[in-house]
């Protein structure tokens, strides 16, 4: 006589009920489960047609490129790490405690995928980033670009400025580094040069290019002389220490909008102290607090018309406990939530 299978005793639990296998849709599962790779498990909209159909307010764009780095590489893995950074909530009912609002109840947000970058073809990568960001902006949503090293900001800002042309764009740029070098080892487009190219080519007026958080020992004095000659304005880390972040950001907003009506926000995660953002290629001790950066993003986005944004230089190979990826993810979330809160 063959015995039947054993009794699966947990079936008798008082909490068991019929239909529990299909109880949760894939989008109801936690962020790490049934994840198909998009930011916050948001729907994908890769193509021009999908973007047109989505009619989105915001679109995430990945720029997995790090061949412009001068020190530690790894930022090509940034988009993937930021997209999979831990979240504790279900996407649909996310609630911002900071802003007392539900970002996804008011905004349609999609993930437009990555610019079609392949390794080794440096110039092509910058061109396809430009094309991808331009196509997203042209379709309607505000592009939020996940880097990548900071060289991606040259094609990305130019794409947004091209889209809103002839309206002028002001840039608020958070960084330990000015990224206004003339060249690095003969390369005009590495991650230390994008801001210089944007100003030289005429995409952004120097006087509306506002930098926050500069510190350390680069660039050199001659480069700061060039910046001054172009009318650029900057707020070094020492000024944040003395005056506080909120007052400094208030000035940065006025300066960026001294002429332009719209803002592009570029956040190099190394503006934050390496103790709170260790995973970056060129860390500089003595940076902003994570909470200061998140508050600054809310302050800027809630007071300005945002036309584009990037979060760059997250290099996951140097991360610990996903500290940096989580901060980059939250930086994007604060911008999305501030956009939603403006729709009150
Ligand atoms: Mn930097």
Give structural notes.
- With 344 residues, the protein is an alpha/beta fold.
- It has one domain (31-341): 3-Layer(aba) Sandwich (Arginase, Chain A), CATH 3.40.800.
- It contains 11 helices and 8 strands.
- The protein has an 8-stranded parallel beta sheet, with helices on both faces.
- α10 (290-303) runs parallel beside α11.
- The N and C termini lie far apart (71 Å).
- It binds manganese (II) ion (MN).
- Residues 150, 175-177, 268, 270, 282, 313 line the site of manganese (II) ion.
Descriptive labels:
alpha/beta; 344 residues; Arginase, Chain A; binds manganese (II) ion; 14% strand; eight-stranded parallel beta sheet
Estimated share of beta-strand residues? 5-15%
What is the 3D shape? elongated
Number of helices: 11
Small-molecule components bound: manganese (II) ion
* pLDDT < 50 stretches: none
Order of helices and strands: HEHHEHEHEHEHEHHEHEH
How many domains make up the 3D coordinates? 1
- Percent helix among the residues? 25-40%
Number of strands: 8
How would you characterize the largest beta sheet? 8 strands, parallel
